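Board notes, transcribed. Complex of a protein with pyridoxal-5'-phosphate.
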Amino acid sequence: MASRVQENTPYHRLGTEQWPGPFSLSNVSTATDDVIARHIQSIDATECDLYSEDGVWIVDFAIIRNQLEIWERLLPRVKMFYAVKTNPNPRLLKYLVNHPMKIGFDCASHTEVAEILSLSVSSDDIIYANPCKAPSHIRYASTKNVKKMTFDNTTELYKIKAHFPDAECILRFKAHDPTPSNNPSEGALYELSKKYGVTIDYSREILLQAKKLGLNVIGLAFHVGSGQRNVRTYTHHIEEARRIWEIAREVGYTFTVLDIGGGFMYSNFEEAASAVNTALDNEFGDMIEQGGIDIVAEPGRYVSAPAFTLVTSVIAMREGKEETGEKRMVYIADGLYSNINAAFWPGELTYPTVVKGRRAYTAKSTLPTSSASSDSGIEVEEEDNGSMDQEGGFSTFMRGGLQEYSVWGPTCDCMDIVIEDAVLPKGIEVGDWFVFKDLGAYSFSMRTTFNGFRTSHKIYYINEGVDIDVI
Ligand SMILES: Cc1ncc(COP(=O)(O)O)c(C=O)c1O
């Protein structure tokens, strides 16, 4: 696979001289580039078919295969339970179910558990990893014998006692960044510990409660936060896990499961895996040697993010005035309420590549002239072909001048902003396309129908040929 630009290149506060381009589309994969070209060429702006401007997804299974191979090589002792919430695309799930690595699944609700069971996955290969479950969902899990479930409060223990007394409970403890920072390019993109987990100090008390209720607690779980850039957090929390392991022994539990959660990214995976391996050797080496411990993890983003690319078009423009510092405003077919929920989270969205499409609405396209001014008096901009690079049959804006833009989603809500301060190539027009790579996590599963927009999109699947679906 071709080398890639840095993951999550921050776009905020970039001056023109710091613009991280030029971006070649081959940053994703050549197969993906071919499909982008094919899709853009297939759209005839003059036909104006309903929804032809909408975002489409391109999924390259070679990237997923590669991610799994790397995991198996660098973390052979850690069984993967893919976090379904990250991206429950049915073909992705099927692919993972059939993969020889024997992947398990982390589910967060009744629907996710039911979906995974419907794919003939054994109930033993599911962790119901939501520490605060609806009682009826616990009851459902009991009917399906999905025993492994996390908890972090005593009320949850009462609920489990009432509806699934044979459950195999896993105590979730609170993760915290040992070196917290306000810098959006450090730490975790999403700090899950704000919501879940017991402190070490409270762990003895809650385990005593579980013991009193006669519940079976089999192990520990933590989550260092989604998109964790500080790999030392793994070291730190594996050390803490060992301390709670001892507390559990004193309470009368012999734990057998250590769930190191998610947080993994592809960009720092080697470092993260190395930190995990060293900490496991240091803290749990004896138990690993004796075969007395199952180490599991719940990666989601690591698997799904890099394989999914979104291509979405410019549907409207508002010219800014450079003299007054007004930015040019670009409106694209996807936004915060559709596939680009990532826009809400600093550091989550990768910098887009812009591809030239068919432009049916520029002054130049509508006026029968190629001169710099028309008979009607409308100023017509000469196209700056020097700024276009031809790649695989389509043009990307790779060189030439840059200008400040704001990039907006299609709904009428002013919150629906994709990039507030973007430095992008000059001359973007309606009909051009934005390509967002690495968008497979927490994206298409978060689409809404807000403002009447659709929650179905065309998807190109690349896996020994290209298959198209709408989902
Ligand atoms: C319990 C649990 N496990 C795994 C994940 C996935 O983690 P990541 O996004 O870091 O891959 C999440 C994300 O919210 C989670 O809540």
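Residues 16-60+306-470 form a domain with the Lyase, Ornithine Decarboxylase; Chain A, domain 1 fold (CATH 2.40.37.10). The first strand starts at residue 56 and ends at 60.
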